[in-house]
Amino acid sequence: MKFTKLFSFATVTALGLVLVACSTPTNQATPASSTTPSSEVMTSPSSATDSSSTNASPTTPAAPTTPAQTSNLDGTYKGNDEEDQVTLVITGTTGTWTQVEPDGEQEIKNVTIDPTNQRIIIGDDTERYFLEGNQLTIEDISEDDFNDKIVLTKQ
């Protein structure tokens, strides 16, 4: 009976140590996650760039340009998608995509902007966007072999 109690106590103690050991790396990994450096880069691009390590440098150029592009996206854009006329109206992180076919048929889709990842969701399709001056380029991220881009001009 004494051996059973001793064995049970040893087992519970060992399991407790295993739980503590397993939880320690999780707590240590949280401060090293990419979320903290990203928010620092976005709030203070100059100081974050100076103090960044080499593993953060690939994300450093994208982070400072995202807020500027988000604030400049508001407005009405027009262009063509193959034979269809496209009008995109953006306000903040939402908008509408109106596509008019040559026969006059019109399709309207809701738009959501994800400025952090430079993604635009048009209806159910997720695309990548780039803003250069008054031109908004929307690129199909699912088409690897075919370069499917739509260039819209701000009105």
TrEMBL record:
Residue span(s) of domain DUF3642: 70-154
Where is the sequence biased in composition, kind Low complexity?
A: 26-71
Q: Where would one find the signal peptide in this protein?
A: 1-29
Superkingdom classification of source? Bacteria
The record ties this protein, via Pfam families, to:
DUF3642
Give the span(s) annotated as Disordered: 26-84
**Alphabetical list of InterPro entries matching this protein:** D_amino_pept/lipop_sf, DUF3642_lipo
Q: What keywords does the record list, in alphabetical order?
A: Signal
Name under which the protein is recorded: DUF3642 domain-containing protein
Which species expresses this protein natively? Streptococcus zhangguiae
